[in-house]
């Protein structure tokens, strides 16, 4: 069953309906929002997406609304705070990946003007090329994480079934 079918089946928790209808596959403009999406996808690894969606507000609070510069400045005390926060996924590798990736995004912003511009500069590519690029650039990124991140932001097709009544704007073009 596709995500679109699942959401329309009536069996999906309301967090899925909102995410499907308003977020999934739609282009993202803000670097902080892109960073949030990346952190959430990383945290989903090994867990259900519903768990992550239910904790999304907890993540926003814990990670200072995903303000990249603030997260990049986190030190050991912040990491300890995050690992003790029941509102998020308390996995040391995932928490450290968020901080490491925020720092990397600051570097990309310095070179490209924004994280979005960096993404745009590599678009379009096939998924394997994106995965290789993300593995070289970011921490805790594999094929599923990268694919879902890019699909959720409109960089890869496939977020919605062709007959789904929710159709985000056309994917980004070269």
TrEMBL record:
The keyword Lipoprotein does not apply. Zn(2+) binds at residues 4, 20. Its EC number is 3.2.2.20. One of its GO terms (biological process) is base-excision repair. The lineage of its organism: Bacteria, Bacillati, Armatimonadota, Armatimonadia, Armatimonadales. Gene3D superfamilies: Hypothetical protein, domain 2. PANTHER family: DNA-3-METHYLADENINE GLYCOSYLASE 1, DNA-3-METHYLADENINE GLYCOSYLASE I. This is DNA-3-methyladenine glycosylase I. GO terms for molecular function: DNA-3-methyladenine glycosylase activity; metal ion binding. It holds the Pfam family Adenine_glyco. Keywords: Glycosidase, Hydrolase, Metal-binding, Zinc. Signal peptide: none annotated. It comes from Armatimonas rosea. InterPro entries: Adenine_glyco (IPR005019), DNA-3mA_glycosylase (IPR052891), DNA_glycosylase (IPR011257).
